[in-house]
TrEMBL record:
The keyword Transcription applies. Keywords: DNA-binding, Hydrolase, Protease, Transcription, Transcription regulation. Pfam families: Peptidase_S24, Phage_CI_repr. InterPro entries: Lambda_DNA-bd_dom_sf, LexA-like, LexA/Signal_pep-like_sf, Pept_S26A_signal_pept_1_Ser-AS, Peptidase_S24_S26A/B/C, Phage_CI_N. Residues 74-195 form the Peptidase S24/S26A/S26B/S26C domain. The keyword Transmembrane helix does not apply. PROSITE patterns: SPASE_I_1. SUPFAM superfamilies: LexA/Signal peptidase. Residues 8-51 form the Bacteriophage CI repressor N-terminal domain. This is Transcriptional regulator.
Amino acid sequence: MSTIDDQIAELKKLTNTAKNTDLSKCLGVSPSTIQTWRMRNKIPQDMFIKANEIAKNGSLSPKGYLELKYFDIEVNAGMGALVEKEEESSSIVFKEKFIRQELGYNPNNVFLMPIRGDSMIPTLKNQSIVMVNRVDGFSTDGVYVFRYDSRLMVKRIQFLPKSIKVVSDNPAYEPWELTKEDIKSADFEIIGEVVWSGQRM
């Protein structure tokens, strides 16, 4: 009967990885999970199924499909940041043709993130998932992800002659404006434009 270390070595062989951190990333689990396997002397059978799929297909995604990076919102030391979450990414796949041809975006330039709060209802519900296309700036009206005053926001942006108008689709929230001077002097960064959303009914 193989030992737990033998089983982990087999998973690494199937996934073509050498380190536990690489193995955990490939299987969509946290590095501490591998230590838990060792403590319990048991690896879930679905991990071997995943590893065999990776060995056969080169990834967990079927041919013609791909996983997009998934980021969650984290506030660290007062600064809003997007932090990649491997587990969520491995559970969401898209048809590559849909992203490239129907949406018209490069899959390498888009990522997924959740919506927090109700300020964009009814367009975007709390906990809905949005696809964001990274951009360096904005020039057309749309829904954008941006950082302002150490906070990450998802809002509708409207362009006025001397300012931009920040609008929440929920009428309970008042719109506000940022002048060009405000944008230059403040902690302000455009992350990307929301190009697709998925949510529960």
